[in-house]
Structure formats: structure tokens, C-alpha cells
Amino acid sequence: MSFSISELFSQHFESKFDLHEQYLNNQMVRVLRTIGYDKNYKKAVGQYLYDDAGNEYLDLLSGFGVFAIGRNHPTVVRALQETLSMDLPNLVQMDVSLLSGLLAKEILATTPPNLEKMFFCNSGTEAVEAAIKFARYTTKRARILYCEHGFHGLTMGALALNGEEIFREGFGPMLPDCQAVPFNDLPALEAALSRGDVAAFIVEPVQGKGVNLPDDDYFPEVERLCKKYGALFVADEIQCGIGRTGKFWAIEHWGAQPDMILMAKALSGGFVPVGGVAMTTKIMDSVFNRMDRAVVHGSTFSKNNLAMAAGLAALEVIRAENLVENSAKVGADIIASINASVPKYEFLKEARGKGLMIAVEFQAPRSLGLKAAWSMLEAANKGLFCQMITIPLFKEHRVLSQVAGHGMNVVKLLPPLNLTQKDRDWIVGSLDKTIADTHQVTGAIWTLGKNLAGHALKNRK
Prior knowledge:
By secondary structure, the chain is an alpha/beta fold. The protein folds into 2 domains: 34-69 and 323-416 and 431-460, Alpha-Beta Complex (Aspartate Aminotransferase, domain 1); 74-320, Aspartate Aminotransferase, domain 2. 43% of the residues lie in helices and 15% in strands. It contains 18 helices and 15 strands. It has helices at residues 5-12, 16-23, 26-35, 62-65, 74-85, 98-108, 124-139, 156-159, 165-168, 186-193, 218-229, 281-287, 305-320, 323-339, 368-380, 387-397, 421-438, 444-460, and strands at residues 41-45, 48-51, 56-59, 117-121, 143-147, 178-181, 198-203, 232-236, 260-263, 275-279, 348-354, 357-362, 399-400, 402-403, 410-413. It has a 7-stranded mixed sheet with strand order 4-10-9-8-7-5-6, sandwiched between helices. It has a 4-stranded mixed sheet with strand order 1-2-3-13. A 4-stranded antiparallel sheet has the order 11-12-15-14, with helices on one face. Strand 7 (198-203), helix 11 (218-229) and strand 8 (232-236) form a beta-alpha-beta unit. It is globular, with a radius of gyration of 23 Å.
């Protein structure tokens, strides 16, 4: 009998959660079953998921930004099938590959003009690791600055730049000479830079945890201050780049030119992991400065043909389908529509973001009855209210979303960039109905709230 993935999938379809519980992370299975997310998805097309009963779900997570062009896009599928059929030489380590050169050329055509060189790797966290090494070697300095509440990955170097303690706890000691500064705080940044020993400031143009936006003058001043004190300015666009915010690169919103741009996620087309670092010629020539240093940093699989083909195809889809423009238009519409409901709902504070990187933030209400209910949830676990939004959105409206970070009352929307008017109406209508339900303290949604609070208090014991 010939080997068949489709046969394996059919034979074991019902045992997905059992296999994970036995052989993988059983705590993840417990979480999914507790909140009712334990669905058996059978198909995925574009922005939609389909379960074994044929129900359609709107995916507002897109694999944390991986599926910017949607799932299983036929252009990328064809590119990968064609690449596999060509019997190409792949990963010939004493050689250079054509496809990686072509992808580098295509990417650099989109970046600020000061970035002229590319380095490829396998993931976002590897791009961060490369940036740390390249910055230290180029500047001959050790200190790396990053922002509070930032997220840059979970490998040991990147973890040292992680602004959320829950990810760092128990994994120390961290990489030395890494210091956090507040996001969007220029005096604090200058104070840290002024010692003259900083190799780089690594920052997300839009912070993923919370979807936090800077003031309009922040990044132009970041660029100026880094130049003044001899530090490299590194924009981590692993999640917010490649069209996500309505510009190809988020940093374009502020007209600043970083020394490096880090990328991954959407560049994969959703199929083959690929990450990269766009940088100045000065940085590339500083690190790879002699023939005996030609292999001083690299990765075995980083420029493999499938990854490079996926990147080329993903960029073509983004261009051909005008997804950057669609992200800007649909995202602005969603944000404006949600904000139009702020006067109606005490719990709703604001929607914010750029393009299709959107936060919906909630707040303590004014009226006594609602305030008491809010306080009950906050006492059990800060940020728990958002579960009363995301769980009903999923169960009742088949909309997949997430809380934007630990201990915050922010729901994050990170959908594919190809959303339609139908999707826009689905999102706005579902959110409006769910938020309205939270204002009925005697309703079913607060039964869920009490159960969530009970679980939270039990776990604390």
C-alpha cells in the first residue's frame, strides 16, 4: 500500500485532541475544551474555516498574522506544486540559490531605500536573534533596548527582549545587557541611549500585545536619537508588516527609516516558514566582512526552495489583489463602525489600530449594577471580561478572535487582508450583539462570566 496523507487524515480525524493530550501539550487541549473551542476543522479557504458539520467560521486570528492572504491560496499552492515538480537542486550548501536572490530583490523593492541587503532565516524569532547579533557586531556594543509590553519571540535571545513577564518566568537568567524602556516615551529612550553603549533599539511599530500605537512624532525622533547616539534602529515588523496596517511596512505611516526591518509570518503564504532581515549595506558588510566570515551566521534550511517560492508567490498575491489597499479601507471602516457604538455601551472604550491590526478595548462601566459585575470579574482575574466577548463571538457567531494580551481588557482582530463587505458586516454585527448582551447582567452571558470567574479563582488556589 502506498503512503497517503489523505488516508491518515481520514482514519484519525476524530482523534486529534486525544493525540495531543497523550503526546503533545495536554494543557492546550484542556484550555480548548474548557472554553468550547474544541472544534474539528475539516477545510480552510481564504478567511474561512469549516468544521465537520459544515459550519463556516470567520477567522480573525489568521494564525497570528501568518495567513495575510488567506488560507490555501491557489497561487501559492501552484507555486509550491511547480517547485516540487522541477527536481531543482535545493540547499546545495556550497552554492547560492536563484530563488533566494529573486525573493531578496522583490522584498527590497518595497523597503525604505536605505535598506539594500537581505538575510533569510526560518521564523520571526530567528530574525530577532540575527538582529541582536548583527547589531552587536556592527556597533561593537552590547546593550539592546526594547519596549515594555513588547513581543519579539520565545527563543532565548529574543526572550530577553520580551516585555511580558509571563513568557520569561522560570526561564532565566536572560541574555545580559538588555533593557526595557516604555513604549512611546522619547525622554526615557534618550536617557537609555545617552550612555553611548547601546547597540540597537528593537521595537514594533505597532505593538502586538494590546495593539498600541505611537504618537505621530515618535518614530521620526527614534530615528534621530538612534543616529545621534550611534545605536541601530530596528523595526520588528514580523506581525505588523507586509500590508497588515494598510501600508506595506507599518513604519511607513511615520516616514522613518530604520537600519533593519524584521519580517516573517505573512511572507510564508501560510505554507512554508520563512523569516528575514532587511538591512543597510553597512550592516551586511560589517558582519560578513571577510571571506572566512562568509558563513559566520546562517541557518541550514533558511533559503530552501519551497520557502523562497512561497515568499515570491505571497508577494505576487498581495500585489495582484491589492491587499494593502484593502487592508487600509476595510480596517478603517471596521474601526469607525465600532467607535460609532461607544456612546451606546458603557463597557466599550474604543476601537483603535491601523489597517487590519485592530484592538477593541473595554473599560469599567459607570452604572452601579454593571460596575459590580465588572469588579467581580476583575477580582477573579484581570482582563477576564474579554473572555465574555471572545467566547460568545465564537460559539454564537462563529467568529474566531483572541484577547490581545495577559491582564488587559482588549480584544484583538488580526484577520486576513482579503476581507469582503460581507465579512465586515459579520464582524461589526457580531461584536455589536455580543457587547449589547454584556449589558444585560441577568442574561446568559453573565452566567458564563460567573463560571469564568469561578474557574479563575479555583486555578489561583
